[in-house]
Write a structure and sequence with these properties.
Radius of gyration: 20 Å
Order of helices and strands: EHEHEHEHEHEEEHHHHHHHEEH
Oligomer: single chain
Shape: globular
Largest sheet: 6 strands, parallel
C-alpha cells in the first residue's frame, strides 16, 4: 500500500507536511454540500490552503454518480488543473470514493489526499485505495484501485456527526474486531453505543479505537492490495449488506452503509455458525449488540428473489456463484465460501425474526 495514513493530533501541521510531499501547482478541495458547510470551516484559515479552489457536489450516496463525477472533471478543467495539480477530498466515503476516482482519471491521474470526516470513512472508505461510483443501481460498480498519497485522520470532525452516522462507522469497526482477535472484538461489543456515550463521544478514546481499527485494515490491504486473497476478509457482512443497501435504495428508503453492513454481518455470522463452526455464543453476543443498536431493516420473504439477484451481481462473485467471507472463530477468516439458496434464505429469515 503506497498511501501514508496519519492519525493526526494537529491537522494544520500534518496537512502542511502532506501537501509538501505532493505535486501541487494548484490545489482543489472537493466537498459535498454538507461537508462544505460543516467541515470546511475547520480548515478555512489554514495558510497552506490559501488560493485553493473549492468544488462542491450534492450530498448523499444517491449522488455518487456519473453526473457528479462529470461535474468534478468539468470543475477541474475549468479551474485550470494540470496533471501536476492536487485534489483534497474532504468528506465521508461518498466524497473520498468519487473524488479519488475523479483524481485518478483526470489527465490520467493527479495526486490526491483524503481527509475523512465521518467515522465510516475514517475506518473504511478512505483507506485502502478503492475508488468508484454507483452505476446501474449497483454500489461501486465502476472504479479503480488507486491510493491517495495521504489519509489524514482527525476525530475533531466527529463532533459534526449525528448519532446514526457514528453508528454507521462503528459497524465497520466491529467488523475489524471480528476479523482481528478476541480482545479487540470484546472491547467493541462491550462499548455502549447508546446515548450519551457517542452523542458526546470521548474523542481521545475514540481516536485510539479508530487507530486500532485502521491498523487491522492497513495490515490486510498491504498484504493483498488488489483483493486476490486475504483482503476479502474485509468483505465480511458485505455480500448480504450491499444487497440490502441496494434494495433499500431502490425502494426509496435508503439506509446508511454501516447499517446495511451490520445487518449483513448478522446473516453472515449465522452462515458462519452453520457452515464454518463459528461459536454460537459469540454469534449471539454480536447479533444482540447489532440488533440493540441498529434495529432491523423491513423486508419480507417475497423480497428474497430480488435480494438473491442483487447478491449475484456482487463483484466478488465468479461464474454467478455468490461468494461469502465467513469466520470459523474471531480472527479465523474463511474466504471464498459459498452457500445454497436455501441457506441464504435461512440467514435472511434469521435476521428478520431475530
Amino acid at each position: 500500500m503506497n498511501q501514508k495514513v496519519i492519525v493526526s493530533g494537529n491537522l494544520e501541521r500534518d496537512l502542511v507536511n502532506a501537501i509538501a510531499e505532493c505535486e501541487h501547482d494548484k490545489i482543489f478541495i472537493l466537498t459535498d454540500q454538507t461537508t462544505h458547510d460543516m467541515c470546511l470551516p475547520k480548515l478555512q484559515n489554514f495558510l497552506c490552503l490559501k488560493g485553493a479552489q473549492s468544488i462542491v457536489i450534492k450530498a448523499g450516496d444517491t449522488n455518487k454518480t456519473l453526473d457528479s463525477l462529470a461535474e468534478v472533471w468539468t470543475a477541474l478543467s475549468q479551474g485550470g488543473a494540470t496533471r501536476h495539480s492536487l485534489m483534497i477530498n474532504l468528506g465521508g466515503g461518498m466524497v473520498t470514493d468519487l473524488g479519488g476516482f475523479a483524481a485518478s482519471t483526470f489527465k490520467r491521474g493527479i495526486d490526491f489526499i483524503n481527509i475523512p470526516t465521518t467515522l465510516l470513512a475514517m475506518v473504511d472508505a478512505s483507506v485502502g485505495g478503492k475508488t468508484g461510483i454507483n452505476f446501474g443501481g449497483l454500489k461501486n460498480e465502476i472504479g479503480v484501485f488507486s491510493d491517495s498519497k495521504f489519509v489524514i485522520i482527525n476525530t475533531q470532525f466527529l463532533d459534526t456527526l449525528d448519532h446514526d452516522n457514528i453508528c454507521s462507522g462503528y459497524a465497520e469497526m466491529l467488523k475489524h474486531g471480528l476479523i482481528s482477535d478476541n480482545k479487540h472484538w470484546a472491547e467493541l461489543v462491550g462499548f455502549n453505543l447508546a446515548q450519551p456515550d457517542l452523542a458526546q463521544p470521548d474523542l481521545a478514546q475514540l481516536q485510539r479505537m479508530v487507530a486500532e481499527s485502521i491498523k487491522v485494515k492497513e495490515r490486510i490491504v498491504t498484504e493483498d492490495p488488489h483483493e486476490h486473497g486475504i483482503r476479502k476478509a474485509l468483505n465480511l457482512g458485505h455480500t448480504v449488506g450491499h444487497a440490502l443497501e441496494s434494495f433499500a435504495m431502490k425502494h426509496g428508503r435508503p439506509v446508511l452503509h454501516g447499517y446495511a453492513v451490520a445487518y449483513g454481518m448478522v446473516c453472515e455470522l449465522y452462515l458462519s455458525a452453520r457452515k464454518t463452526g463459528f461459536p454460537t455464543d459469540k454469534m449471539h453476543q454480536t447479533v444482540r449488540f447489532i440488533l440493540d443498536h441498529y434495529g432491523r431493516l423491513p423486508y419480507t420473504c417475497d423480497d428474497y428473489p430480488e435480494l438473491l439477484e442483487l447478491m449475484r451481481h456482487d463483484k466478488k462473485n465468479t461464474s454467478g456463484i455468490i461468494n461469502f467471507t465467513l469466520l470459523g472463530g474471531i480472527g479465523d477468516i474463511r474466504i471464498n465460501q459459498t452457500a445454497t439458496k436455501e441457506e441464504i434464505e435461512e440467514a435472511l429469515d434469521f435476521l428478520r425474526e431475530a
